[in-house]
Amino acid sequence: MVGRWTMVGIVPLYNFVSNFISWCTKCFIWKWLQTSLAQGVKESFMSKHENKYARPKDSLHRNNHAGSSLNWVRPLSYVETFMTQAQKYGCMKTVYALWLDTKKPIDITLVKQAAHITNRKMPHLQLSVGYRNRRPWWKKRNSETLDVEVVTSQDVIWIMEANLKHQYDLEEGPLWFVRLVKNNQNEENMYNSHKCYKYALVFGFLHNIADGTTNMAFCNQFISILNDLIEGHPPNMAAEGVFAEPLEDRLANEKSNRSYLCKLFFEHAKKAMCFGAGVCNFTKNYPLPVENEACTRILHHEVDEITTKRLLKKCKMEKVTINSAFTAAANLGLYKLISEKDVGISDTVINTLQTVNMRRYWSKEAQPNSFGCRISSLNLNFSVAHHDAYAFWEYARDVHRIIKHGLDEKPLALLGLPLANFFKYVIGENFWVSKFSLPSSNDCHFCVTNMGNLDNILIGTLSQIKVSQIMRSVSGHFMPTLCQHTLQTFHGRLCYSIDYYTQKMKESTAEKYSKYIVDILKESIPKV
């Protein structure tokens, strides 16, 4: 009798409750979306008639003292506002790990010294968020208290994953931290075994203050200062760079119009309300593991120097970027996963996001040493068919043309900036449905973020320190994507990691998928 009640009563009741909660969530998200449209479009057109970044004339926020008025910097940009809202749900927190080989031992005192000097040199590190006229503004912190600690662990990636959950104090700061990671081995034994001392530095940043370009400039400064301190030399104390004005917002306001923004908004809303229709070709074969706690996990791959050199040479010959070749491989790897479960599939569509450095749309004079979060996302769809796997470079050229069109011929990432804050509602929706172990709303299969050749940005070898490896990750588990691909080249090697989201993709699936991508890239190079 109990078994019959379980099958006939509880299961339908569970399905009813699940559907009801999902329906209620959609109703709430629709209300949020209406608010987003009004706010995003209104701000876009108001800025054409007034200076959005002018200081307001009325009084300060009640939680701030009038005497601190000189500390106010400017309002947050479209993307900065989104990043700030997203962190409330545990998203948009970035972590970088640098593996170090040093000639002399490093202690926490040296690392704290380096952190304080770097903080004084780089203006964006000195900021926190306050409110004026109920709007978020950047303000300079009154305190120089920093978050620097030492931890002991053999597993640096585990430290990265744990610190993707780091809690930042928005109004007090700091919005960044440093962790010196030591392993359990005695330092003298370590030196005798490796002829150097081995450490890792893990840096964390709230994404609203810094993007990849800014973070690599930070890493460069920090390592150079630490090297000087180890040598006993006085570091260069000159200020480095500027906290940039969001010039991309002004360009977006000039180029966007009301009809385009309304159309784009309803496209976003439709995707959000469809609860995963854009990725159902994957999720119907690989159901979302909604029972898992939502978080971001990392799997790392490296391609050796010889293979990387041949791959880059082949990309140049085929007139495509490594980013386009990687995106093509990611599409084909996903198609291979799908076709293993759906053997009758002949072609499908892969929906993607490409992270774009918005400085590309600035004047050349404004670009150097401009710090802050100056990025956006480019939403692109790619068709992929069975025969594309046998004509990889032809397919990669098609992918390259589509990306180039979206970047330059019709700069979609720029035009959609006024609605950047829309995604905070999607993140909020996904946060709440995860609490009920319900499927999240996803409209893209993956996001790609590519930093290019880090050897052009980071001085990896200094007199006392060699940076042997770099990894980076972003917490994005409530974003409307299933995973993120992070890549760069460093010391001549292609470094790639997949950030997969535990309530959307199983570890075994992420392992298989990322391995497929690397294998496709390797197999695309002619055998020597």
Brief rundown of the structure:
With 528 residues, this protein is α/β, with parallel strands linked by helices.
Can you describe what's shown?
The structure is a single chain. With 528 residues, the protein is of the alpha/beta class. The chain is built from 15 helices and 16 strands. The strands form four sheets. It has a six-stranded mixed β-sheet with strand order 9-16-15-13-10-12. The radius of gyration is 24 Å and the shape is globular. The protein starts with a helix and ends in a 5-residue tail after the last helix. The N terminus is likely disordered.
Descriptors for this entry?
five-stranded mixed β-sheet; alpha/beta; globular; six-stranded mixed β-sheet; 15 helices; Chloramphenicol Acetyltransferase; Alcohol_O-acetyltransferase; CAT-like_dom_sf; Atf2/Sli1-like; 22% strand; 528 residues
What is the element layout, followed by pairings?
Elements: H1 2-46, E1 72-75, H2 78-86, E2 93-102, H3 108-121, E3 127-132, E4 135-140, E5 148-152, H4 156-163, E6 176-182, H5 187-194, E7 197-206, H6 212-231, E8 242-243, H7 247-255, H8 258-273, H9 280-283, E9 296-303, H10 305-317, H11 322-341, E10 347-357, E11 370-371, E12 375-385, H12 392-409, H13 412-415, H14 423-435, E13 446-453, E14 465-474, E15 483-490, E16 493-501, H15 507-523
Parallel strand pairs: 5-6, 8-11, 10-13, 13-15
Antiparallel strand pairs: 1-4, 2-7, 2-14, 3-4, 6-7, 9-16, 10-12, 15-16
Helix pairs in contact: 1-8, 1-14, 2-14, 3-6, 11-12, 11-15
- The name of the CATH superfamily of the largest domain reads Nonribosomal peptide synthetase, condensation domain
Outline type: globular
Output the number of helix runs.
15
What is the residue-mean pLDDT, rounded to a whole number? 88
Low-confidence parts, pLDDT < 50 over ≥5 residues? 1-21, 43-68
Task: Tell me the distance between the termini.
Answer: 70 Å
Write down the CATH class of the largest domain: Alpha Beta
Secondary-structure-based class equals: alpha/beta
Q: What count of structural domains?
A: 2
DSSP strand content: 15-25%
The CATH architecture category of the largest domain equals 2-Layer Sandwich
CATH topology grouping of the largest domain: Chloramphenicol Acetyltransferase
Pfam families: AATase (PF07247)
InterPro entries: Alcohol_O-acetyltransferase, Atf2/Sli1-like, CAT-like_dom_sf
